[in-house]
Design goal:
This protein is an alpha/beta fold. The protein has a domain at about 1-95. It contains 21 helices and 18 strands. A hairpin with a 2-residue loop joins β6 (about 180) and β7 (about 185). α3 (about 55-70) packs antiparallel against α4 and α9 (about 190-205) packs parallel to α11 (about 245-275). The longest helix is centred in the middle third of the chain and has 29 residues, at about 245-275. The protein starts with a strand and ends with a strand.
Length: about 575
């Protein structure tokens, strides 16, 4: 039998630990209240005869308390409860020690081999914040379910501050009406290079006040190519009007303005790459490109140059070009229209790079675009594969799923409540200076937490693993999906906020979930699930995208994802 400890670790069952715990309580009571060794062995035998593959340590302790009272040893049961409480206090007071010491000692090992001193400092601070949230801010049942690996309160280390997760910024408004960064007024850009610089400054300010991704519509900077061209044309016309023809002046202005576009895009890629490290590493930047929004030759040149520089990559410390996953480009392509064929050369630029593709559901991408119209308050993750592993049978799976969904709901309530009553001054660039809206001074964000302005995400992972583990039929698969979707509909009906099922999760988070779940299976020698997990790893985890679907749909997908951060959607 395996025992799941409070920190989520799984260890072998050890009966001696039960004997020691009861023995310590025995030493605290009078002779008449003590329990004999035979009765202790009966309690141990009762636990072992339950014949469970795995048990929570809390469940074992509950059984011991009940048995002690059945024997009439009420004083002993009380001492045992006090013993449990004292141990709990000791654990709570030391919850961050091990993790912080691990960061200090192993900062240059394994996945953290790039850690610098400031990154170590940030990680240690996040461990302290995470500990505070788990002990004081979140309900115990949510914390325990997370420790068991069935759910995850994402970005819990930032929960001590009332900040949002992800947002598609209104860059057009910020450019046209101006914005404010650190108390400095930023006026409307007058050229493409200026727009690129301001964009980077905006992202830098946003990432410190949110925990998740930033989405930007590339079309919002198209017009600044025109401004650069007009500015240079006017300058060259004034200089060479008498010696050059209008066509020659146009050619020079076009060449110089396009060089500025190339430099501006290079600025964006190099500067945003620096945001892949440091305190706000989790705030990733994604550019949305819809070829149907192209209206001029200048727009087309901006898109092609953006894609070209993405494929070429940036120069690393060894002088070699490497393709980085961030910032990513989400490129939507409509192959049905005649106009779209004009842009085949843009897609050829991607395909010639020989970067691996992954499948993506276009229906899910449409849902994703709809979600981007609202900012995201925060996310909960539910691990269906882990729930299936913990379940003794299908009925137990549905029971555990219902319990975990209920705990996710409590997590959503906590997230929404944490943002209630927050003033726009908490993050001026989000709330007062255009990224999301332009609230007045001392105005609260409460109205923006309604379902028409924002949402929260429930991320479902491990669906195929759960189906394999429980050998679910097609009808049973539909029942699982319907259960989740019906539950969410009920939440949305009862509350002013909105919860949506999301199909996106952070790459590192997915890899960690995959690895831990895979280790669980290997403990049970479930080798015939290996193919399923290889399928999940190859098709879901490489680029950080996970899709809530059944295996029979995979062959019918007609969209592709580049592991380098590109997403090509074929409608």
């Amino acid at each position: 039998m395996k025992i799941v400890k409070r920190d989520g670790r799984t260890v072998d069952y050890d009966a001696d630990k039960i004997r020691i715990a009861i023995g310590k309580a025995n030493n605290e009571v009078a002779a008449g209240e003590k329990i004999g060794e035979e009765q202790i062995e009966e309690i141990i035998k009762y636990i072992e005869l339950l014949d469970k593959k795995r048990m929570l340590v809390e469940d074992i302790q509950d059984i011991i308390e009940v048995k002690l009272m059945e024997y009439g040893k009420y004083a002993l049961a009380k001492k045992y409860i006090i013993y449990r409480y004292k141990r709990s206090i000791i654990r709570q007071s030391n919850t961050t020690d091990a993790s912080i010491l691990s960061i200090m000692k192993n900062g240059g090992v394994g996945e953290n081999n790039y850690l610098t001193a400031d990154k170590q400092r940030d990680l240690m601070a996040s461990e302290a914040s995470k500990d505070l949230a788990y002990r004081l801010l979140l309900p115990n049942n949510v914390v325990e379910d997370e420790k068991a690996g069935r759910i995850k309160f994402l970005n819990v280390e930032h929960f001590t501050e009332p900040i949002i997760e992800s947002v598609k910024i209104d860059l057009k408004s910020m450019f046209e009406e101006g914005t404010v960064i650190n108390g400095i007024r930023i006026e409307t850009p007058k050229s493409f290079q200026s727009a690129a610089n301001v964009l980077v400054e905006i992202v830098g300010a946003l990432r410190t006040c949110q925990t998740g991704d930033i989405y930007i519509d590339l079309a919002d900077i198209f017009r600044y190519y025109d401004l650069s061209y007009e500015k240079k044309y006017a300058m060259y016309e004034a200089l060479f009007k008498s010696s050059l023809s209008r066509e020659q002046i146009r050619a020079i202005a076009e060449t110089q303005s396009f060089l500025e576009v190339k430099t501006g895009i290079q600025t964006i890629f190099y500067q945003l790459n620096t945001f892949s490290f440091g305190a706000s590493e989790s705030s990733k930047v994604h550019f949305l490109i819809d070829l149907n929004t192209i209206e001029s030759e200048h727009d087309e040149k901006v898109v092609f140059e953006f894609v070209k520089q993405k494929v070429q990559g940036i120069v690393d410390e060894f002088g070699e070009c490497r393709i980085t996953s961030l910032p990513s480009i989400i490129l939507s392509v409509d192959y049905v229209s005649e106009q779209a064929k004009r842009y085949d050369y843009i897609l050829n630029e991607i395909e010639s790079s020989e970067i691996e593709y992954m499948a993506m559901s276009p229906e899910r991408f449409e849902d994703f675009k709809l979600q981007l119209k609202k900012f995201n308050q925060g996310s909960m993750l539910i691990n269906l594969g882990k729930i299936a592993l913990d379940a003794e049978d299908k009925a137990d799976f549905y029971s555990l799923l219902e319990k975990s969904l209920s705990n996710c709901y409590e997590g959503f309530l906590c997230r929404n409540h944490n943002l209630q009553g927050v003033y726009g001054e908490k993050s001026p660039i989000h709330w007062r200076h255009g990224a999301i809206c332009r609230l007045a001074t001392n105005e609260k964000i409460d109205l923006l937490l309604k379902k028409d302005k924002s949402n929260m995400r429930l991320i479902c992972v491990g669906f195929e693993a759960a189906c394999k583990i429980l050998d679910l039929s097609q009808e049973e698969k539909r029942q699982v999906r319907d259960m989740i979707e019906d539950t969410i509909k009920q939440w949305n009906k009862e509350n002013t906020f909105e919860v949506v099922v999301s199909n996106y999760c952070d790459d590192a988070e997915m890899k960690n979930l995959y690895s831990s779940l895979h280790r669980e299976l290997r403990k049970y020698d479930i080798d015939h699930y290996e193919d399923s997990f290889e399928f999940m790893k190859d098709n879901y985890f490489r680029s950080g995208l996970l899709y809530y679907m059944t295996e029979d749909k995979v062959e019918n997908l007609d969209s592709e994802v580049l592991s380098s951060g590109f997403i090509v959607v074929k409608k």
